[in-house]
Design goal:
This protein is of the alpha/beta class. It has helices at residues 13-25, 36-41, 62-71, 87-95, 108-140, 144-154, 159-166, 170-184, 189-199, and strands at 5-9, 29-33, 49-54, 78-82, 100-103.
C-alpha cells in the first residue's frame, strides 16, 4: 500500500517526534498531529493507512476520537498507546474497535510489528470494499426479472420451483439463470451465492 499513511496523534512533542523518526526510518509515510481535534480538522480524504493515538489527551481522548471516527464511517484501524495505569481504558478502546494497544514504554520492534499488522488489516478491508463495489455494480446491471431469479437461486430454490412461483417456464428460468451467471461473472452457483452475500455485506 504505497499510499498508506500512519497518523501519529499525541500531545507529547517528544513522543510524537520520536515515533515519527522511527516510522520514517522504517520506510513508512507519517503524518503527526498534536491532538485528536487537530487530526479531525485535517482529516484525510483517503482511509488508506492507520492511526496510532495516545489514550489520554486534553480536549479529546483517544477513545472519544474513535467514537467520532466510527460516527463518520472512517475505517482506518486504530492502535492505542497507553500507560500502565490506563490499561482499563485501552481494553475499553479494544471493545470499541481498536485493533491493538501498546503500553509505554514500548520497544521499536513492538510498535513496528503492530503498525505493519494494522496496515495489512487496512489493506484487506480496502480490498473487500473494492470487491463489494464491483459486485454491487454487477447486481445493478441485472433486470428486475433477473434479480427475482437470483434471489430465489440464492435461497436454494430449484428451477422448477422458481418457474412455478414466477409463472414462467423452467426453460425461461434457465435462460434468466444463464444471464445472471454471465452478468455476475460467476462460474458456479456456489460462487454466485458468495458474490451476492459479499455485495450485501457490511463494510
Amino acid at each position: 500500500m504505497p499510499d498508506a499513511v500512519i497518523h501519529v496523534i499525541d500531545d507529547d512533542d517528544a513522543v510524537r517526534d520520536s515515533l515519527a523518526f522511527l516510522l520514517l526510518a522504517a520506510g513508512m509515510v507519517v503524518r503527526t498531529h498534536p491532538s485528536a481535534l487537530a487530526f479531525l480538522d485535517n482529516l484525510p480524504q483517503s482511509d488508506a493507512g492507520c492511526i496510532v493515538t495516545d489514550i489520554r489527551m486534553p480536549g479529546m481522548t483517544g477513545l472519544e476520537l474513535m467514537e467520532r471516527l466510527h460516527a463518520m464511517d472512517n475505517v482506518m484501524p486504530v492502535v492505542v498507546i497507553t500507560g500502565h495505569a490506563d490499561v482499563p481504558l485501552a481494553l475499553q478502546a479494544m471493545k470499541a474497535g481498536a485493533v491493538d494497544f501498546i503500553e509505554k514504554p514500548f520497544g521499536d520492534a513492538v510498535i513496528l510489528d503492530t503498525l505493519r499488522n494494522a496496515l495489512r488489516e487496512n489493506g484487506k478491508h480496502r480490498d473487500r470494499e473494492a470487491e463489494r463495489n464491483i459486485l454491487a455494480e454487477r447486481l445493478a446491471s441485472l433486470s428486475p426479472r433477473e434479480l427475482q431469479v437470483l434471489e430465489r437461486l440464492v435461497a436454494g430454490q430449484p428451477n422448477k420451483a422458481i418457474a412455478h412461483e414466477l409463472g414462467i417456464s423452467p426453460r425461461t428460468v434457465e435462460v434468466y439463470r444463464a444471464n445472471v451467471m454471465n452478468k455476475m461473472r460467476a462460474n458456479s452457483l456456489s460462487e454466485l451465492v458468495r458474490m451476492t452475500m459479499t455485495a450485501h455485506s457490511d463494510a
